[in-house]
Amino acid sequence: MNAPTGRPELVERLRSEIGRHGPLTFDRFMDMALYEPGLGYYAARGDSAMGQTDTWLDFQTSPQVHSIFGTLIARQLEILWIALNCPEPFVVVELGAGDGELASQIVRALADLHPDLCLVYHAVDRRPRSTWQAAPDAIPGSIQRWDDLEQISRTNLSAHCVLSNEFFDALPVHRVTWLDGKLWEVYVDWSNHGFVEHLAPPSNEKLIDWLAAAEASLTEGWTGEICLRLPGIIEHIARLINRGVVLTIDYGGEAEELHDLSRNGGTLIAYHRHHWNDDVLTRIGEQDLTSHVDFSALMRLGLCHGLTPAGFTTQRDFLLALDLPSVAQRMLAEELTAAKRWQSHFAINELLRQDGLGRLKVLAQQKGLPTFWLSGARRQ
Ligand SMILES: C[S@@+](CC[C@H](N)C(=O)[O-])C[C@H]1O[C@@H](n2cnc3c(N)ncnc32)[C@H](O)[C@@H]1O
After folding, report:
1. What is the DSSP string of 252-316?
2. What is the pTM of this model?
């Protein structure tokens, strides 16, 4: 049993939902813990109604570590733009754009590379607009903000690239386990003043279909996560692209790699004050929850909508292939003091570390552009 620490109002809301409807799927629990308006981990950040919270310090994604990240992605976009015969405008959609840091880096770097390039950049994020920080100091009017993917995919917008960094690993997931030759779902229940795990038959047949489609061979005790939101999201993404590329950067791996991790309880994890922990049912609304992305599923679902894999690699190899060393050298030379230079040098190395951000995976999927291949990915 876990003590129900966290935002009291959110704990109470979860408790009363369990009281009304019975144990919650983990998908529902995670959705509320991260995104419940005004209370969830992402939904309360910087919300003036809540007062500035300090949770935003918890995690550091690549664009927050160093702006060279966005500068190098801009180089990949430049390669794509040329492969597409330099369309005007060049339309980019970023999913889960967070506070807009990556958007600002990319817009600035593309403007440096091609001052005449007419870029239209759409940033999509479901967190409150008050958390949007970076856009104001980016090039005015160059970034348009959207609250959800469905909204933008209903327009006639045609994107040349849909990119994301750590978007898919923040999507709510169902938890399942294989016991006594049967599939069980791990629900969240309330007992004796705390949230507890509760096993019961799956809430949705689609969980069983998912494992069948993945051809997963499950062993006793196997526990894993399934994101049933993926099919809808991939469908929306594919609708946005007539000719172009989906570029996904995230923690995760192909099914085989994830299957190994899932032998020991899955990949779901909480992140609080710079430390990973397994207490996913505590500090509700005050800690991040994340699980590894199943890149095999992204590839499989993409193919159903005309998105063909166009390279899969690690962040380290991706950034190195985009000429990180020489871009870094230029950026370091521009730092005004030795301390800043050292700080920058350290941050850039963080992006490449094989036991850190360098191990994130990068996947490209193309539609109507068979000549495109992801920088740093080996051709099969
Ligand atoms: C781990 S953060 C990454 C933020 C940013 N990409 C970065 O690299 O710093 C995940 C982001 O995805 C957003 N998000 C999650 N689900 C979403 C959805 N369905 N539509 C749009 N944004 C979503 C969250 O609000 C959050 O800002």
Report:
1. EE-HHHHHHHHTTT-S-EEEETTEEES-TTSSBTTSEEE--EEHHHHHHHHHHTT-EEEEEEEHH
2. 0.94
